[in-house]
Design goal:
This protein is of the alpha/beta class. It has 2 domains: about 325 residues, ABC transporter type 1, transmembrane domain (ABC transporter transmembrane region fold, Up-down Bundle); about 220 residues, Rossmann fold, CATH 3.40.50. It contains 20 helices and 10 strands. The strands form 2 sheets. It has a 6-stranded mixed sheet with strand order 6-7-8-3-9-10, sandwiched between helices. A 4-stranded antiparallel sheet has the order 2-1-4-5, covered by helices on one side. Helix 5 runs antiparallel to helix 10, helix 8 crosses helix 10 and helix 16 runs parallel beside helix 17. The longest helix is centred in the middle third of the chain and has 53 residues. The protein is elongated and about 120 Å long. The protein starts with about 50 loop residues before the first helix and ends with a helix. It binds adenosine-5'-triphosphate. Adenosine-5'-triphosphate binds next to helix 11. The site of adenosine-5'-triphosphate (ATP) has 13 residues, from helix 11. Its main location: membrane. It is found in: Cell membrane. One of its GO terms (molecular function) is ATP binding.
C-alpha cells in the first residue's frame, strides 16, 4: 500500500463526477490499467467534505452545543477571577487589615471560595453535556460508516478492501473519540482562558498585556509549524495503521491458502515491515511534538522572565502596584502552564482531523450503481409463465481498473430458459453474470428484464427479479434457519422447511445438533462445502426470483455431494430463467442452451447436443471431459 499523501493535485477533485457509473473509457483488452486513486488511503473528496461532515454530525445538537458554550464561558470567567481577587487582596484588603478592617479580606476569601465552587459545578455540568454530544456523534459516525459502506457498489469494495473500511470504523473513529472525550474540553478551555487572560492583563496593565500579546507571535508561528508538520505525520500514521489492519484481515480471511502454501513466514516478514513502518510513522509524530514542546516552553519562559524583570523595576520605581504584578505573574503562569498539554491536545486534534478527513473521503463516495430516482415497475408476469426474458442490448463493459472485458455484446434469453455459460478462465463468464445481477452497470448499452432496463428497476424489484448464488455460498452468523430466511425475510418456519426439503437439505439439517436452530459458526454447527451450497439453494428457492444466476463453485465435491447438489440445482432452476456459469461440464447437461465464451464474445451458441455433435470448441471440451471420466 502506498503511504498516505495529503490531497494532491493528481487526485480527481470531484468524486460526484465519478459517481454516475463506470465511465472509464474502454481501452481494448489488455490496455494498461489507469492509476487508481483508491490506491491512496485518502479518497478524493470535495474540498469542504470534512467541514460538511462535522456540521451534519453536530446539527442535531445545536442547542446542547450552545448550552455547553455558555457553561464553559461562565466557568472560565469564574476560574480567571482568582488572580484578580489576589491583586485586590494585596493592594487593598491587606492594607485595610493593617488598619483593623477585615471586611474586604473576608469578602475576597468568600469570593475566591465561591468562584471555585461555581467553576466546579459548571465544569461537571459541562462535562455531562459534552459527553452526551460526543457519544451521540460517535454512534452516529460509526453507523454512517457502516450504512454507507454497505450502500456502496461492489466496484468500490473490490478496490478499497475491507481492511481499510475496518480501519476507518475502528482506529479512525477511536482517534476522534480520544479528541472528543479527552482533549476537546481542555483544548477549548486553554483557548478560552488565553482570551480571558489577555483581556485581564490588558485591563490590569496595558503595557504588560501588550508585551504578552507580542509573545503570541512566535508562539503562533511555533503552533502553525507544528500543525503543518504533524498533520503530515498523522496522516502517515493513520495510513500505516490501516496497512497493518489490511494485512491482518487479508491474512486471516485467507488463512486456508496461507496454510496450504506455507505463507506464514513471508507473511510474518511483510507484517513486521508494516509494523515497523507504523512505528516509524508514530516516531515521526512524537518527534514533531517534542520539537514543539521545547520551542513553545522556551518562548514562554523567556516571556515570563522578561515581564517579571520589567514589572519588578516598575514596582520598585512606583509605576506599578505589587498586587497587579503578582496577578500578572499568576495569569502568565496560568497562560503558559498548559502549553505542553496544548501540544498534546493539538496532537489529538491533528490525529482526529486526519481521521475525519479519511472518513469524510469515504462518506463522499457515491454508489457507482445507484438506485433510480424514478423506478419503472416490472410488468406483471402472466400466470404460469416461467421466469422473465433477459436481453443484453449492445452492452459494452470495462472494469474501472482494467481494459474492456465485454466488447459490444448482444444476447437474448427467452423466459424460462436454462443457459449454461462455459469458456476458458478469464473469458468473461462471471462478468456477464455480474452485469445481469446489476453488481455493475454496463459502460454502454442496456441489460433488460422483460423490456425494463435493470438501471430503472427499484432495488426491491431487482432483488425480487434477479438473484445470484455466488461461488462461496456464504453463510452469515446465526442459525441455519436464519440463513435460509434471508431469501424471504417474512417466511414462516414451515416455508423454510419446505424449501429445505425440496432442495434435499432437510435430512442433514435435522442431523445437526440443534437442527434448524444450529448456529452455523459454533462447534458442531460446522457444515461442509456441499451442504453450504444446499443451504444457499434453499435460500434462493425461498426467494423465488424470476431469474436465477448460479456462479458455480469450482471446488469439486465428493460424488454423493455432487449428486445432491445436481439434484438441488434442478429443483431451484425449475420454472425460472437461469444462467449457470458452469465450471463442471456435468452441469451443462441440465441446460437447454450452452454459450461458449472467449475474450468477452460468444463464439458458440446452441443446445448441448448440437454443440457436442458440431466440431467446435465445446465439442472438444466435452470430449476431453468424457475422456477424463473413463
Ligand atoms: N473486479 C475486476 N476488476 C478488474 N478486472 C477484472 C475484475 N474481475 C474480472 N476482471 C477481468 O475481467 C476478465 C474476465 O473475468 P471474469 O471473472 O468475467 O472471467 P471468467 O470467465 O468468469 O473466469 P473464471 O472462469 O476464471 O471465473 C478477466 O481478464 C479478469 O482479469
Amino acid at each position: 500500500m502506498t503511504s498516505a499523501a495529503p490531497s494532491t493535485a493528481t487526485e480527481p477533485e470531484d468524486p460526484a463526477a465519478r459517481g454516475a457509473g463506470p465511465e472509464g473509457q474502454p481501452g481494448g483488452a489488455g490496455a494498461l490499467a489507469p492509476a487508481d486513486p483508491f490506491d491512496k488511503d485518502v479518497l478524493p473528496a470535495p474540498k469542504n467534505a470534512q467541514r460538511a461532515l462535522l456540521r451534519s454530525l453536530l446539527h442535531a445538537h445545536t442547542r446542547r452545543l450552545w448550552l455547553a458554550a455558555v457553561l464553559l464561558l461562565i466557568q472560565q470567567a469564574a476560574v480567571q477571577a482568582g488572580p484578580l481577587l489576589v491583586a485586590y487582596a494585596i493592594d487593598h484588603a491587606i492594607p485595610q487589615v493593617r488598619e483593623g478592617r477585615h471586611g474586604a479580606l473576608i469578602a475576597v476569601a468568600a469570593g475566591y471560595l465561591g468562584c471555585g465552587l461555581l467553576s466546579g459545578i459548571l465544569q461537571r455540568w459541562f462535562i455531562r453535556v459534552a459527553a452526551v454530544i460526543s457519544q451521540d456523534v460517535l454512534i452516529d459516525l460509526r453507523g454512517r460508516i457502516f450504512r454507507h459502506a454497505q450502500s456502496l457498489s461492489l466496484d468500490f469494495h473490490e478496490r478499497y478492501t475491507s481492511g481499510r473500511l475496518i480501519a476507518r470504523a475502528t482506529s479512525d473513529v477511536e482517534s476522534i473519540r480520544e479528541l472528543l472525550t479527552d482533549g476537546l474540553e481542555e483544548l477549548i478551555g486553554v483557548v478560552l482562558s488565553a482570551v480571558y487572560i489577555t483581556a485581564l492583563l490588558l485591563f490590569l496593565d496595558w503595557r504588560l498585556g501588550l508585551a504578552t500579546v507580542v509573545s503570541y507571535l512566535p508562539l503562533h508561528v511555533a503552533i502553525r509549524v507544528y500543525q503543518r508538520r504533524s498533520m503530515v505525520a498523522y496522516r502517515k500514521r493513520s495510513t500505516a495503521v490501516a496497512a497493518v489492519i489490511v494485512k491482518f484481515t487479508e491474512t486471516m480471511n485467507g488463512i486456508r491458502p496461507v496454510k496450504a502454501f506455507r505463507r506464514e513466514e513471508p507473511n510474518d516478514a511483510a507484517f513486521q515491515e508494516l509494523n515497523r513502518r507504523h512505528e516509524r510513522a508514530n516516531g515521526d509524530a512524537i518527534l514533531e511534538m517534542a520539537r514543539y514542546v521545547v520551542g513553545s516552553r522556551l518562548i514562554a519562559n523567556v516571556t515570563i522572565a522578561a515581564i517579571v524583570l520589567w514589572g519588578a523595576y516598575r514596582v520598585a520605581g512606583g509605576g506599578l502596584a505589587l498586587g497587579v504584578l503578582a496577578a500578572c505573574v499568576l495569569y502568565l503562569r496560568r497562560l503558559y502552564d498548559p502549553i505542553d498539554r496544548l501540544g498534546m491536545f493539538l496532537n489529538s486534534y491533528q490525529s482526529a482531523a486526519a481521521s475525519l478527513e479519511k472518513i469524510a473521503g469515504l462518506l463522499a463516495q457515491r454508489p457507482t450503481v445507484p438506485e433510480p430516482e424514478h423506478p419503472v415497475p416490472l410488468p406483471e408476469r402472466a400466470a404460469g409463465r416461467p421466469g422473465r426474458e433477459v436481453v443484453f442490448d449492445a452492452v459494452r463493459f470495462a472494469y474501472r481498473t482494467g481494459g474492456e472485458v465485454l466488447p459490444t455484446f448482444g444476447l437474448r434469453l427467452p423466459a424460462g430458459q436454462t443457459v449454461a455459460v462455459v469458456g476458458a478462465t478469464g473469458a468473461g463468464k462471471s462478468t456477464l453474470a455480474k452485469l445481469l445481477a446489476r453488481f455493475y452497470d454496463p459502460t454502454d448499452g442496456r441489460v433488460l428484464l422483460d423490456g425494463v432496463p435493470l438501471r430503472d428497476l427499484s432495488l426491491t424489484d431487482l432483488r425480487r427479479g434477479v438473484v445470484m448464488v455466488t461461488q462461496e455460498a456464504f453463510l452469515f452468523s446465526g442459525t441455519v434457519a436464519d440463513n435460509i430466511t434471508i431469501g424471504k425475510p417474512d417466511a414462516t418456519r414451515e416455508e423454510v422447511e419446505e424449501a429445505a426439503k425440496a432442495i434435499g437439505a432437510h435430512e442433514f439439517i435435522l442431523a445437526l445438533p440443534d437442527g434448524y436452530d444450529t448456529d452455523v459458526r459454533k462447534r458442531g454447527g460446522r457444515i461442509s462445502a456441499g451442504q453450504r451450497q444446499l443451504v444457499a439453494f434453499a435460500r434462493a428457492l425461498l426467494a423465488d426470483p424470476a431469474v436465477l444466476i448460479l456462479d458455480e463453485a469450482t471446488s469439486s465435491l465428493d460424488v454423493p455431494g455432487e449428486r445432491a447438489v445436481q439434484h438441488a440445482m434442478r429443483t431451484v432452476l425449475n420454472g425460472r430463467t437461469a444462467v449457470i456459469v458452469a465450471h463442471r461440464l456435468s452441469t451443462v447437461e441440465i441446460a437447454d442452451r450452452v454459450l461458449v465464451m472467449r475474450d468477452g464474445r460468444i463464439v458458440e451458441d446452441g443446445t448441448p447436443d448440437r454443440l457436442i455433435s458440431d466440431d467446435g470448441h465445446f465439442a472438444g471440451l466435452h470430449q476431453a471431459w468424457r475422456d477424463s471420466l473413463v
